Amino acid sequence: NSKKGPQNNKGSEHGKGKSGKFTLKTPKGTRDYGPVEMAVRRQVFDIIYNVFHMHGAVEIETPVFELKEVLTGKYGEDAKLIYDLEDQGGEILSLRYDLTVPFARYVAMNKISNIKRYHVARVYRRDNPAMTRGRYREFYQCDFDIAGQYDAMIPDAECVQLVHQVLLKLNLGDFIIKVNHRKILDGVFGACGVPVEKFRPICSAVDKLDKSPWEDVRKEMVDEKGLDGNVADVIGEYVKLSGKEELLEKLKNDARLKDSTDAQAGLSDLTLLYQYCKSLSCDNHLVFDMGLARGLDYYTGVIYEAVLMAGQTAKEGPVGSVAGGGRYDGLVGMFDPKKKTVPCVGVSFGIERLFAIHEQKQRADNDKLRSTQTEVFVAAACKGMIHERLKILGLLHEAGIKAESSYKNNPKILNQLQYSEDNAIPLVVLIGESEVQEGIVKLRDTATRAEVAIKREELVTVVKQRLANK
Amino acid sequence: NSKKGPQNNKGSEHGKGKSGKFTLKTPKGTRDYGPVEMAVRRQVFDIIYNVFHMHGAVEIETPVFELKEVLTGKYGEDAKLIYDLEDQGGEILSLRYDLTVPFARYVAMNKISNIKRYHVARVYRRDNPAMTRGRYREFYQCDFDIAGQYDAMIPDAECVQLVHQVLLKLNLGDFIIKVNHRKILDGVFGACGVPVEKFRPICSAVDKLDKSPWEDVRKEMVDEKGLDGNVADVIGEYVKLSGKEELLEKLKNDARLKDSTDAQAGLSDLTLLYQYCKSLSCDNHLVFDMGLARGLDYYTGVIYEAVLMAGQTAKEGPVGSVAGGGRYDGLVGMFDPKKKTVPCVGVSFGIERLFAIHEQKQRADNDKLRSTQTEVFVAAACKGMIHERLKILGLLHEAGIKAESSYKNNPKILNQLQYSEDNAIPLVVLIGESEVQEGIVKLRDTATRAEVAIKREELVTVVKQRLANK
């Protein structure tokens, strides 16, 4: 079988002809995942699922679409990117934009007071796709969240620990986990003289610091958002700061922040977070970065973002964030008729980016990425062996051994051996008329091409031994 | 943590109030999957995936929506059930209705000449949902298909073998795999005097035989589809027949079918299928059922359907089909500009029904269905132990042991032990001030409540031993 991956679909290859002929493509901003991409995806998911299970998380799944009003008023100006379904009579529906809002809807609807859940699924954004840079309109999110009224920073520290564990296990090189706190940002804004109604817009501007230089961010603050230039300059002093616990201590005594209740609350939260992370042995990649703001409006406390250091060459630019999240204590309350809320903290992995990096790494390590798990290929050395091959297949499957054979009545021997080599199938069982008569089979090692004759009744045992030693 | 499952959402519980208030529900015909449902789902998927891998299948994924024209002309009168997306400027899109048409589009678009793939994903049908009977508008399909030009019946027999293996491994009791052939049906229709243009409508009528008595089906043929009553009566003789190979032999010599090229081709295909299934040791549940027709128009050869026998009481009625499929040699060609086709055969598992039956069985076997995999709960016997608990968590996680602890600074000991029992967590590590001072921990077996003191540095080894023996 030649298992070709999907072609890159750039939308223009198969345009609609003049004759109004059929357009053979996937929708704009979407792609098929071929066998190799799926194999990579499964490896990454298995690692992440294992960490989620390590933390006792349960899994949930919600519908791909929600009532449109569930999504309304949650995403600010990004709401224009939501996909709506056609009104075909009945309810007005939209495709989910993320997994956080459906989670909050789930918690409120089922009156759940506490849950630690993960949810891995695709979300939909009618954004301008930049598919060459791995940005699609349909993409996976991989979320872990803890909902419940608990003591300060314990669940927050678990989220940091979880990101730490996932990135270590994926083994993608060095990384940092940036951490900040919305109350520190608000405290800084307040102490610098930003009017309260401008806190969120100015916060959005700060969020762009990881992609744009300070000059551009300052320009947005002053020109677009009407902030006083001097105030912007003072903010600039703070958001450039980054460090560890000593920076927290320094800021606690900062002249401007000393009297800010918000800033002091945020600073002592982060101090506690550091202590817990030390006990959990996950503090060594933690960096307090005052320029971290996170885009979404709904965060209310700790925010964090993990960044890979590898691949950050001057040419390619930074790999960017591979995970991010924070505390959002108000979102569930937006769905409760009595505004009763459930505090939440969570993290979302940028899983498409992790797939791409993992695949790159795999290809560098070993150019043969297998998309199947087949252990044995059953081959015939001569014609008329189809029933004998099927009997051996049945025997191997019965024993739990992954085995394939050709779909042809009389396949050529060279093609069968070539197929086994091309697909990295470790063992080949070879039969011919004489083998069938004598009740034996030949077992061939694909890598060394060495063959041995064994009794048919010993086949399963020998194959299992060989596979165990691979 | 109280991990409540989702409430059944019947659409009327949280109606839109007079004040136009927020509607807290999932869209009509959809549901959330809670932790227990997801745990059951994973068990079933793992079993099925294992069988797919046994056969060397690769996995693919396609977008949740397709260009509307990809779906057009594939589903006959069911096309009215397709969900369309709103025209927000750009392409006209629809949610996928099944996984077969996207697969054919994928094969044609990537000019693949052969592939054996599986695809597990949700599909969307604006049907009248009967949620109490497990019928939803959003539901999983689990498809395995073989595309490629191969020798007769070898891939078809593999599909039968795969269904056989999945149902054996799921261990849901006795089952039969009904098999028939579109050419036999066409041969019968032709020999009985059905006009060619009525072959497909009459075939659709026969398809209803598993739910309706022959009288109703005959009525549909005669009254709705304008078939001569005498012709219908002769068809009735044939579609009531079922048996094994001896029926195939009998029909080969049937006076009416003797001269039907179609019928004879279908009968010799099924004879060969029986022989291959014998070699694969999967013929013992195979039943040749002439009343099996399958709804979809695109089938061209062998068709099959698996039915569970268990639970078929007079009161509950039959469980019905849990898997079905067949050969469709023309579908890929519908997407190729030059009509070049790739023959296909495949099977789709009725996975939602399998979830439901598996869950029922699990509950009957053992009333405690776990939704987490946690192995150890780290508990404190006194106040002020939070950092000590986190250190032990870090230690256990480092060793790959799944461990949780409370999010409270000073949780009550009884609550911690109760949580461990409620969630069937097998082991509890208990620490108090004296344990910390002496460098020991207490290890408690949740089931027996027996406690032993062990040295802290031996904790990981002992826990691993205990878990291995569970």
Named at the architecture level, the CATH assignment of the largest domain in chain A is 2-Layer Sandwich
Residue ranges of chain A: pLDDT <50 for 5 or more in a row?
1-20, 312-316
Tertiary shape of chain A: elongated
Counted beta strands of chain A:
16
Nearest-angstrom radius of gyration of chain A?
28 Å
Counting structural domains of chain A, the number is 2
The oligomeric state is: homodimer
Label the structural class of chain A: alpha+beta
Please name the CATH topology of the largest domain in chain A. Answer: BirA Bifunctional Protein, domain 2
The largest sheet of chain A is: 9 strands, mixed
DSSP summary: helix tally of chain A: 15
Quote the average pLDDT of chain A: 90
CATH class of the largest domain in chain A: Alpha Beta
Helical content of chain A stands at 25-40%
Largest interface: A-B, 108 and 108 residues
The amount of beta strand of chain A, in percent, is: 15-25%
- Give me the side-by-side strand order of the main sheet of chain A: 1-4-5-11-10-9-6-8-7
Termini Cα gap of chain A: 24 Å
Keywords:
elongated, BirA Bifunctional Protein, domain 2, 470 residues, alpha+beta, homodimer, 9-stranded mixed β-sheet, 5-stranded mixed β-sheet, 2 domains, 15 helices, Rossmann fold, 18% strand
